[in-house]
Amino acid sequence: MNLTAHTRDGGGAADLLPPDHTQAILEVTKEVGAALKGSGCPFALVGSVAAYAYGIPVRLQHDTDFAVRAEDSETVVKLLRGRGIEIVDPPEDWLVKARSGGEHIDLIFALAGRSVTRELLDRAWILPVDSVHLPVIDPTDLMTSRLAALSEHHCDYGALLPVARGLRERVDWDRVGEETRDRPMAVAFLYLLRLLGVLPHPPTARDEADDRD
């Protein structure tokens, strides 16, 4: 089958791929980030845009995500509404959804079931995001939250692998392993990283015996 011709007819595999909204999402990220910086409420970029800020070559396709504390949600929502950003009330109680310029925004109060705290936000790195400096979730917290979110229903190692490779020198992998030790999909992914040589293998009992000799 000629895939190019098939695609031109509107039935190709390319039609199933979501479009790359990178620049549009970055513009919305800067807009919301500027508003949050003026609010006095602590926050940090999370998700794919956070990975992008760390230099990971990801395509931004869906939304931009901000971690904020639940106790700041009313202040943040009021501020964004005042700037003409549409607020959407989702059925979930751990985030608020918004829209601006056709792009989606998630204001997240819990990452993989764990509440966003001041301590987590204080660990954020200040990085340029398309020329605007914004707080970005710490690399270890980014990997921990991404791995903790994996489940039998959503387990895309392919999307996580370039993030892990790109961040490996900046992540405290011992803390990631400790905080995700009860998540089978996360444990399996960390094992895969060792098989691929992204992370070193832990020393075996034989290695420790050789060292003593």
TrEMBL record:
Top-level taxon of origin: Bacteria
InterPro entries, sorted: NT_sf, NTP_transf_5
Gene3D superfamilies: 3.30.460.40
Name the UniProt record assigns to this protein: Nucleotidyltransferase family protein
Organism of provenance: Streptomyces hydrogenans
